[in-house]
From TrEMBL:
<dbReference type="InterPro" id="IPR000832">
    <property type="entry name" value="GPCR_2_secretin-like"/>
</dbReference>
<dbReference type="Pfam" id="PF00002">
    <property type="entry name" value="7tm_2"/>
</dbReference>
<protein>
    <submittedName>
        <fullName>Adhesion G-protein coupled receptor G2-like</fullName>
    </submittedName>
</protein>
<keyword id="KW-1015">Disulfide bond</keyword>
<feature type="domain" description="GAIN-B">
    <location>
        <begin position="46"/>
        <end position="206"/>
    </location>
</feature>
<dbReference type="GO" id="GO:0004930">
    <property type="term" value="F:G protein-coupled receptor activity"/>
</dbReference>
<keyword id="KW-1133">Transmembrane helix</keyword>
<dbReference type="InterPro" id="IPR017981">
    <property type="entry name" value="GPCR_2-like_7TM"/>
</dbReference>
<dbReference type="InterPro" id="IPR053066">
    <property type="entry name" value="ADGR_G7"/>
</dbReference>
<keyword id="KW-0472">Membrane</keyword>
<feature type="transmembrane region" description="Helical">
    <location>
        <begin position="216"/>
        <end position="237"/>
    </location>
</feature>
<dbReference type="GO" id="GO:0016020">
    <property type="term" value="C:membrane"/>
</dbReference>
<dbReference type="InterPro" id="IPR046338">
    <property type="entry name" value="GAIN_dom_sf"/>
</dbReference>
<dbReference type="Pfam" id="PF01825">
    <property type="entry name" value="GPS"/>
</dbReference>
<keyword id="KW-0812">Transmembrane</keyword>
<feature type="domain" description="G-protein coupled receptors family 2 profile 2">
    <location>
        <begin position="214"/>
        <end position="346"/>
    </location>
</feature>
<feature type="transmembrane region" description="Helical">
    <location>
        <begin position="257"/>
        <end position="276"/>
    </location>
</feature>
Length: 346
């Protein structure tokens, strides 16, 4: 950690940028046992930039005097007092305490319906893993976006677990509890130190008790559709030589149109099943969305080509209306047009 090794020329080191702010301080064990904390004031800053905010350090004594209740605080973290009783501290040296604030959750990517609508704040004691505290760390958050109580279904106090999801990291509520909302701010208590935030579920908890059932139906239906499409393609391949001599140009084109339509639908289902949960990576999420967009447009185009074929079969009943190059033109339009449309979609 940078804050652990930074050389302090004064009693505190503070660095503020638009999206990240850091403060580190060396305090004596006696000061540390008074209960250290940090608060951020943006003072109604419309740009919401951390570089224009003010950082204030405080102690438990300041809290008892009403510092956190009277001040217009956007986010704060307060460490419990008497931590020297639970941490292996050297009474002869100072304790390095550091805090980092993040303007948003862009560095904490997780596929979730829930939204982080507060700043993210972390606390750290240099060289120590602080967990299972008898007295909790207290964190308060003011929402960065206006959210009415009617919109919010669930509010969760969370921390970033770096080891979750096979090392990719995820928000977890283990060891954290919500203490409710007061004066427009949410209060959380956690028994350890790391990165903290509040998750707002503005959509409700998925489909509730039916979520697992609907998910199973989706997967089973998709797999059954894949199997039937593969069987359809196999039937076209098996009967190709048997019916080759008896087909008119129109019948041949219609057969090829159906094959391309099956391929497009098959690609949609495979992409959906393989990529629907691959949203942890922005690149992977974008790739899956682009492929789904492409194959959906291709399937719609092949349906349109099929409609033209039906029109030719029902109205233009004579074979000379069917061009030998019809299927080649259809391939260019149905598979090629999407490569022009998708890059222009945002």
């Amino acid at each position: 950690m940078f804050a652990d090794g930074v050389d302090l020329s004064t009693d505190r080191f503070t660095s503020k940028r638009q999206d990240v702010a850091l403060q580190a301080a060396d305090v004596s064990v006696q000061e540390f046992d008074q209960g250290q904390g940090l608060a951020l004031f943006l003072n109604g800053n419309s740009s919401n930039s951390l570089s224009e905010g003010r950082l204030f350090s405080f102690t438990k004594e300041d809290e008892r005097e009403g510092f956190l209740q009277t001040a217009d605080i956007d986010v704060s973290i307060s460490l419990p007092a008497k931590l020297s009783n639970v941490l292996p501290l050297d009474n002869t040296t100072d304790v390095r305490v550091s805090y980092i604030l993040y303007n948003d959750d862009s560095l904490f990517v997780q596929p979730s319906q829930d939204a982080v609508r507060t700043h993210i704040i972390s606390g750290r004691v240099a060289g120590m893993q602080v967990k299972n505290l008898p007295e909790p760390v207290v964190i308060t958050f003011a929402p960065t976006e206006e959210v009415s109580d009617e919109e919010v279904k669930v509010v969760r106090c969370v921390f970033w677990d770096f080891e979750a999801d096979a090392g990719q990291g995820a928000w977890s509520s283990d060891g954290c509890m919500s203490q409710g909302k007061a004066n427009g701010r949410y209060t959380c208590t956690c028994n350890h130190l790391t990165n903290f935030a509040v998750l707002f579920d503005v959509h409700g908890s998925g489909f509730g008790e039916h979520e697992r059932l609907l998910e199973a139906i989706t997967y089973v239906g998709s797999i059954v559709s894949i199997i039937t499409l593969v069987l359809t393609l196999l039937s076209f391949i098996i009967t190709r030589k048997q019916r080759q001599s008896a087909r008119s140009p129109h019948a041949r084109n219609q057969r090829l149109v159906l094959i391309n339509l099956c391929v497009a639908l098959l690609a949609i289902l495979i992409t959906f099943l393989a990529g629907i949960d691959q949203t942890a990576s922005p690149i992977g999420c974008t790739a899956v969305a682009a492929l789904l967009h492409y194959f959906l447009l291709a399937a719609l185009m092949w349906m349109a080509v099929e409609a033209v074929m039906i029109f030719l079969a029902a109205v233009m009943v004579f074979g000379h209306y069917v061009s030998e190059s019809f299927i080649y033109k259809a391939v260019v339009v149905a598979w090629g047009k999407q490569t022009i449309l998708i890059p222009n979609c945002r």
